Amino acid sequence: MRGFLSSPAGATSIGVTCAAALVLPAAPTAAAAPRAERPAAAVGPAGAAVPGSTQSLPLAPLDQERTPGATPAQGLYRADVRHFSLVGVIWDDPDAALRGTVQVRTRSAASGKWSGWQDVETHNEDHGADPASAERASGRVRGATAPLWVGDSKGVDVRVRADSVPDRAAAGRGRGGDPRSSLPSGLHLELVDPGGGTGTQGPQADAPRTLPALNRRDTERELDRLRADGDLDPADDGAPRAKPYIGPRPGIVTRRGWGADESLRARGFVYTKKIKAAFVHHTSTGNSYSCAQAPSVIRGVYRYHVKSMGWRDIGYNFLVDKCGTIYEGRAGGVTKAVLGAHTLGFNSNSMGVAVIGSYSSRKPSSAAVKAVAKLTAWKLGLYGVNPRGKTYLTSGGGNLYPKGKSVRLNVISGHRDGFATDCPGKRLYAKLGSARSSAAKYQGR
Predict the structure, then answer these.
(1) Which one, of 35, 46, 303, lies nearest residue 189 by Cα?
(2) Using an 8 Å Cβ cutoff, are 290 and 215 in contact?
(3) pTM of the model
(4) Helix, coil or strand: residue 381
């Protein structure tokens, strides 16, 4: 069982394991040559084609920027590009905020028709590795908007407009900004093709596609095996030995199941000491996906996090779609305390669970909320943690709490509890009380 669930040398990752339209001119801008198109490696280790690619296209100033008194704006229009399904905007400095609006419209690959304008969530600096971590200091990390799922598309029109700034000179003194502009430097549009999802490439090609659900008795046996194998320290997890409070393990779609290309992520795994809390997120990718498309959305987010934003792997430890299906996120072992990049300042000793979609104005499905409760009841139970309880985490630095401050938080918290952000959206955040109560019941409390 150790080889299947938790061995770092195992063959599987389980084993180691917000939209009003802005009226903007539709006339195309001059076509700019891409800085670099970053397709996936052509061939995997076993000779199989690796699916997916990323087109990275530099944005150019719009005509409005040359109008006296106009706010800075950049954009790009391409009627025909290689197919893509997910879009986002990146810039050079990960510590620079994009203070403005990003809107995009896309041309359907099926019908050739253009969509209406859609908003792209610009506040994404609240996700990511902690400031002092090796992942953050890699030199590869870039600032970015949230990714937006647009479906199979072959044309794109994007407009990025800075907020009105009374003092233009003061705006130019912001980090990463041109003195003549209040937009961050190095703006590029990322067009992500998530690929066909033919399965995990490379050393994890033989991994199971789904980790099956277990009943309570088998889950408790699994917990005993993990302890016996040394994968969970009984002196550390705090769980009562006679009656462990742990929810039945839910079914989990593995990285192989959603088609992760393991050649994209960094080699090896990074762990934290334990799991004391779960932070709930939304991906801000929109709600237009079908449940059958959820693996494609995850592959797109994964590629965007790694190839566009420069992270070592997808940031979340788990993801949940609107039909309540649970997916393995960052590699390293579903039972293990894998260090994620989900809640800047509070990644240590926590896990990140992202519900796929945008939930500032849209209510999450009951299936998704139930899945969050089941997942946290099981994973927190492995570490002897009460979902209805409180815990203390030490801040790694952020805009709510300074580095080193001990912060008392709900064991199941929303992203906004650790960082000033809208995430996970007010409608999903309002459901966390229900998730806490349900998770505790699943644990038998």
Answers:
(1) 35
(2) no
(3) 0.85
(4) helix
